[in-house]
Design brief:
binds magnesium ion, binds aspartic acid, alpha/beta, binds adenosine-5'-diphosphate, Carbamate kinase, globular, 8-stranded mixed β-sheet
Length: 482
């Protein structure tokens, strides 16, 4: 389809009746110009509420569960009342109650079982998106835009890794084209749920927290969209997280690789897996502020001509460092490292950074702290013999650490940059525990004590003058959030 625009609205961009009206206005305006489909997150904090309700159900806390369901109902019923007049809202309200009833049924099942099967969890949490899509599509119709709510479970085909599923692009392409192209050709605006999908045999899945960005990218790719616009609550991709660094600035352009490195290293503004489906087809992406739609936002592009130095800094605090050290010199450290990584790979654990010492044959790697128990189990199994016979020292785990990552395509051509970064961190009396430079030379990752992480981020941002550079290249004073 020619000139297709995919837009994604995040949770805060549909977080209230007022925000839904704003999202609808943006969507209706674009729809008048060209074929448009939108992907929508659950209203802000709703996914957290749904997960909390399920945890309470699993723990046998019936009053807690009921109170969460009441909050869920009140939020959506009130929003529906604010959006639609009597006479229009009744069928929509009936749908809202039906979806919440579906959630209640699954949660009660979990309560009875005392256990939350991953598949049921995925089916239940996707109801947040089904509710927001229902309200936004109904409001669009009411205000004169032909729109239909679409459940992505009928389009996005995934593997069966519940909670963190991966799309199967070919079957997704077929389904997306069969379902959405006829609507688009008729001038209808599809309003698609973000975050969810289903296996080929119809079991509901989700794509991981924050996964609606990924849903939008998947649809943009399989429908060969001309552009993807991601609407959020800040002015675009910034030189740092505005919550940590108040004087950060919006970047005018970033490359796919820079954006992906930022996302993987903690910049919440994009889900880490968003860019992969778009890079191959070089579909341009915009990150824009739905609270200030007139602002240009950040454009994510294949390459930038004049890119210099470090452009942005990001951090991850929920991480842990595992160190492996031989107890004597007979051990082949490289071979141990190979097997350790292989074991972690089999256990589906993401290794965020690796660092090694060739002299002592020791090495350490960083994982997310929620994956730590599984990582330790995997290593203790893989290296059981070496550990039991004392060839390796017991695994050393340090979970009082954080990761700071400095990103920029132009870093490889900037001598002395790494030294300046380390000096800036040390000046703040923050201990550097490990360093890893990505093989792409696009990122320098530094592991520091967790309580020094935020200080270190601010120090690196100031030292590299990221804010000033970004403002200068925009040609205007610009930055901050809404
Ligand atoms: P949405 O609900 O729209 O998907 P998110 O909360 O997932 O929005 O992501 C937007 C948030 O990401 C911003 O409010 C901001 O606090 C945070 N953020 C972290 N790092 C960055 C960064 N480098 N640039 C912009 N925002 C960032
Ligand atoms: N609603 C989901 C979440 O909060 C997906 C998303 O918002 O992108 O994780
Ligand atoms: Mg998000």
């Amino acid at each position: 389809m020619k000139d297709l625009l995919i837009m994604k609205f995040g949770g805060t961009s549909v977080g209230s009746a007022e925000r839904i009206r704003a999202a609808a206005a943006i969507s209706a305006e674009q729809r008048q110009k060209r074929p448009t489909a939108i992907v929508v997150s659950a209203m802000s904090k709703v996914t957290d509420l749904l997960l909390e309700a399920l945890r309470r159900a699993e723990a046998g806390d019936k009053p807690g569960l009921e109170s969460d369901i009441e909050k869920l109902r009140a939020r959506h019923v009130e929003t529906c009342h604010e959006l639609l007049p009597a006479g229009v809202r009744e069928p929509v309200l009936a749908e809202v109650h039906k979806l919440i009833g579906e959630f209640e049924r699954i949660a009660n099942g979990i309560y009875m079982l005392g256990e939350a099967p991953p598949r049921s969890t995925d089916e239940a949490v996707a109801i947040g998106e089904r509710l927001s899509v229902l309200l936004l599509a109904a409001y669009l119709q009411h205000t004169g835009t032909r729109a239909v709510a679409v459940n992505a479970a009928s389009i996005i085909v995934t593997d069966a890794v519940f909670g963190n599923a991966t799309p199967l692009m070919e079957p997704t392409r077929e389904k997306a084209r069969a379902k959405l192209l006829p609507l688009l050709e008729e001038g209808v605006l599809p309003v698609v749920t973000g975050f969810n999908g289903a296996t080929a045999d119809g079991r509901p899945t989700t794509l991981g927290r924050g996964g609606s960005d990924f849903s939008a990218a998947i649809l943009a790719s399989v429908l060969d969209a001309t552009e993807l616009w991601i609407w959020t609550d800040v002015d675009g991709i910034m030189t740092a997280d505005p919550r940590l660094v108040p004087d950060c600035a919006v970047l005018e352009e970033v490359t796919y690789r820079e954006a992906a490195e930022l996302a993987y290293n903690g910049a919440k503004v994009l889900h880490p897996r968003t860019l992969a489906p778009l890079m191959e087809k070089q579909i341009p992406v915009w990150s824009k502020n739905s609270f200030a739609p007139e602002k240009p936002g950040t454009k994510i592009v294949p390459r930038i001509e004049a890119s210099c130095g470090a452009r942005a800094v990001t951090s991850l605090s929920n991480v842990a460092l595992i160190s492996i050290e031989p107890a004597n010199s007979v051990i082949n450290g490289t071979e141990v490292m190979g097997r350790a990584l292989e074991g972690l790979g089999r256990a589906n654990i993401e290794v965020l950074a690796v660092s090694s010492s060739s002299y002592r044959q020791s090495f350490c790697f960083l994982v997310r702290d929620r994956e730590l128990p599984a990582a330790i189990e995997s290593l203790e199994t893989t290296l059981a013999l070496e550990l039991a016979h004392g060839y390796l020292k017991p695994l050393d785990v340090d979970d009082n650490v954080g990761l700071l990552a400095v990103v920029g395509e132009g870093m490889r051509g900037t001598p002395g940059l790494a030294g300046r970064i380390f000096t800036a961190i040390s000046r703040e009396q923050v201990n550097i525990i490990a360093i890893a430079q990505g093989s792409s030379e696009l990122t320098i990752a530094v592991v520091v004590r967790r309580d020094g992480l935020e200080k270190a981020v601010r120090a690196v941002h100031a030292e590299s003058r990221m804010g000033e550079h970004a403002r200068r290249s925009r040609g205007a004073e610009y930055g901050g959030s809404h």
